[in-house]
Amino acid sequence: MIGQRPREMRTAARRVRGLGAAHSGTTHFWHQRVTSVAGIPLTIALICIVVALLGRSHAAAVQILGSPLIAIVMLLFIINSAYHMWIGMQEIILDYVHDDKWKLMSLMANLFFVVMVAFASCYAILKLSFGV
Amino acid sequence: MAEFNAGATRTRPLSPHLQIYRPMLTMMMSIVHRITGAALYFGMLLLAWWLVAAASGPNAYANFEWFMGTILGKLILFGYTWALIHHMLGGVRHLIWDTLHGFSPAEREMLTLATLIGSVTLTLLIWVVGFLAMGGPR
Known about the structure:
The complex is a heterodimer of chains A (about 130) and B (about 140).
Chain A: H1 12-17, H2 27-53, H3 58-66, H4 68-96, H5 100-130
Helix pairs in contact in A: 2-4, 3-5, 4-5
Chain B: H1 2-9, H2 25-56, H3 58-69, H4 71-98, H5 105-133
Helix pairs in contact in B: 2-3, 2-4, 4-5
């Protein structure tokens, strides 16, 4: 009798929309690609900025990090990386953490960590940019 | 319902996992891509510390610089540089694969080897440039 049961429980409309059980389909997959492409020039820029700042005094570092072009690039790097690493860590958690309780807690911790790191970094950049 | 229950109680075949396969370069690099991603995730704390220290003042910045001057700090920063470059090049490789190119055995080996050699070379290059930017050997 197993062979006679319907292989597909979803309606044709549900299937054609391509959205699975998570109701978001390949959104995260696509966003991970977009942020990885954006991350290439931003990462190269970050490395150049860090190398340029090596060994400089605090006053010089403050001035350079607070200058508009550098600050904009840094903010873009932080926001782009934060979203990319949030999706990435979520994927790792969903792969390895099977216990519901631990899974929910680690998914939450992932979001808290990412928001905390990104917010602190962005706040620091903005403070350096706008002074005081 | 009977059919569904019968299916659920049957022992299902498990897909073979890591210990079944002989280690291959592509497989190792796939694992390394995930490990470097996770390392960079926590490494972002370093960037946050640097920026918050700069925003906090000369004392906080001096603390950060002191830590980065220690052997441990340098080791972490070197590892972070390599992880960043390796994850970036690995990402480029995955983007190439996403376009359905580079899947023949020779091509995928070449791409994978290029990621590894490229990441080590670029990391060393960045550190040489950084060393010279710091004023070279003193």
